[in-house]
Amino acid sequence: MANHCFDRAIDTRTPSVDDRKPVRSWFVTPSRQDFPGIMLWGAPTLEPSTWNEPVSTPNRIVAEPWSVSTIRFKSTATGVWDFHTHREHELLWSAGGTVTLEASEHLWMVPPMLGIWIPAGTAHRVRSDDGAVIFATYLTPDRIDTDWDSIVGIPMTGALREVLLHNENNAMPDLKRLRLQQVAIDLIHPVQAASLDIPLPRTPDLLSIAQQIIADPADDRTTSDWARTIGVSGRTLMRRFQADTGTTLTQWRILVRVRVALIEIAAGKPVVAVARGLGYANPGTFIDLFRQVIGHTPAAYFRSFSPVMKPHQNGTKPARVTR
């Protein structure tokens, strides 16, 4: 692990009558700080050809003959797992707190209701805030067949959470555990939603403005106000910002606010409170903007992640066990 700000609350083994213990492996690559976008859950907007090539990682985390193992960590301070890879696929999910995943020069947020699927061999870095509770579920790639090969969001339904935790916390006969792990794999399927990709400007003065807005999305300064902070006219700022990011400063600020709203609503915060916290006196205005960006109202959008959602809807197939 990259630092020591985490308490491991569950042993790294898959409990079993034969008490075998997997081996942890970390692969460190150079750090990359300049990410061109901030992304949320869903299918990546990157074309497959732009993804990093998988890195061979020979050591196992999941011991034979198992397919699935979950490790729980609790952050005791803001911390980072630096870039590394795993031989297994990883499903990263949380039970609260701010968790982010960096991979392929993009940043994904990990809200409590959804996990992030990281294909085997994908170099990635994980950050978490103090108090975050993080789960890493590892899945043996040669025993699992999926219809996707990139980073995607996975709905963490109540059933999937309970099966994964039951597998990790309880002793049982080997055959029963193998059946339970197959049930877990059958419950894994990608979310049917496009990612919210927020491009970051490359120019230092524009990037400074962007970072201030990200730090305080409710900041109500106008384009002219922001322009004065870097010594240009409002018209010049509008033109430069659009040339650098492909979107206007006003549209970009809305995307940042919707990103924050998605995370806070996913964590259980009421829509009205979220809207007011983002500077909208009228929640209806916020809901209209949310609909324009996402395509649904907040209530309709989050209903799409209900535990009753069918694994095969919209033609998407769940993961499958192969033997």
Automatic annotation (TrEMBL):
Glycoprotein as UniProt keyword: no
SUPFAM superfamilies (UniProt xref): Homeodomain-like, RmlC-like cupins
Residues in HTH araC/xylS-type domain copies: 207-304
Keyword flag Transferase: no
UniProt xrefs under InterPro entries: AraC-bd, Homeodomain-like_sf, HTH_AraC, HTH_AraC-typ_CS, RmlC_Cupin_sf
Coiled coil regions in record: none
GO MF entries: DNA-binding transcription factor activity; sequence-specific DNA binding
Record keywords: DNA-binding, Transcription, Transcription regulation
Cited PANTHER family: HTH-TYPE TRANSCRIPTIONAL REGULATOR NIMR (PTHR11019:SF199)
Protein name as annotated: Putative AraC family transcriptional regulator
Annotated organism of origin: Rhodococcus erythropolis (strain PR4 / NBRC 100887)
